[in-house]
Amino acid sequence: AVDEMGYMPFYAEECASMLAVTFSGGDKLMRSIYEDHRAQWDTNQAGLSHSHQHGFGLLNAWRMVNAAKIWESVPYLASYVSPVLKENWIIPLEPQQLEVTWNVTEADLELSGMRTLEHVAVTVSITHPRRGSLEIRLLCPSGMESLIGTARTMDSDPNGFVDWTFSTVRCWGEEAQGTYRLVIHDVGDKTLRAGVLRHWQLALYGSSWSRAEIKERQRLLEEAMSGRFLDADFSVPCPPGLKVPEQELYTIPVNTLKTLMLLGCFAVFWTIYYTLEVFLTRNKVAFDLTACSSGRGCPWPAKGRAPSSLEDATEMEETIPLYAGEEVGVETETEQLQEGPARACQSPGQGEAC
Q1: Is 133 strand, coil or helix?
Q2: What's the pTM value of the predicted model, to 2 decimals?
Q3: Which pLDDT does position 32 carry in this prediction?
C-alpha cells in the first residue's frame, strides 16, 4: 500500500519480495489516493526497477488490460536448491559484518534448465538473544542488493531464527549463474551475547528464458500497454490447454445389484427361520410342563439318573423348564411326589394298608 503522499503507510513494512502496490490509506487525515515517486528505486541487470517500499510499482488496470491482449504463457518454473551450508560463525556488531557465499555453477543449473531468475529464497538458522537486532541482506551475482530481513526494534524474541525463509524478487530477469552473498549485521549493543549463524540454504526459482527473450517480452508489453491494441479486435489466441474428460458418476453394475439382493433375501429368510425356531421351541417347553404336572411323565430324567451320552446330556440341559424366570428344581418336584403317600400312611384307617 501507499498513502496519498506517496509514502509507505505506518502499518506496512519494507520487503524485498514485494511485487506491487496499490492505492490505500495512511493516517486518518489522509485521503486514499497519491503517486509512487516518493520511493527509492533500483534498476537491476534485466532493466527492471524495484523498490523495497513499492515493489515493481503501482498496479495500473488500464495498462494491464492492454497487456492482456498480447499475453502468452511463460515457460515452466525451474528451480535449484543448494545443500545445507553449515557455518557456525559469530555475527559481529556494526560496523563489522558477517558475509558467507555460495557459487552456483552452470552444471548446477543444467538439470533444471534454469537460465534466468524470478525469485530467490534463503533459509537460515541463527541463534541470537534478541533477533530484532539482526539485519540480513542478500546480494545476487549481478550485485543487486536485497534487504530480506530488516532490524525491528519491537522484536525481542530470544529464539533467533530457526529454519526461517526469506525471499526477494529484486533479481527478476537476471542471470541465475554466479556467486550469491549473504550479509548479516548485528545492530544491537554489547550487553547481549553475540549471535551465531548455524547454517543456511539457497533456493533459486526461474525459467529457461534467456535475457534476450525477456527483453523482447518487455518490449512487446510496453508497446501493448501504450493502448495500441485496446480498441482493436486483435488479440493473441488463448492456448488450447489440456483436455480434461468429464467426470463420470459412479454406478453400481447389474451383477453387483443381483448379488446384493440375493444376500439380502438370504439374510431375511435366515432371520425369519431363526425367529420361528425359537418361538416353537418355547411353546414345546410349556406343553411339556403341563404334561409333567398331570403325571403323564416329564421330559427330563428322574433324580439320580446320569446321562448316557453327550447328546443325552445336552438334551437334559435344554429341556429343563423355566418358570417366572427361575429354574424349577427337579429335586423339589421329586420329593413332593415321594412324600405324598408317606403322609397319607401316618394315620391310616381300618382296613387300609400303607
Answers
A1: helix
A2: 0.63
A3: 58
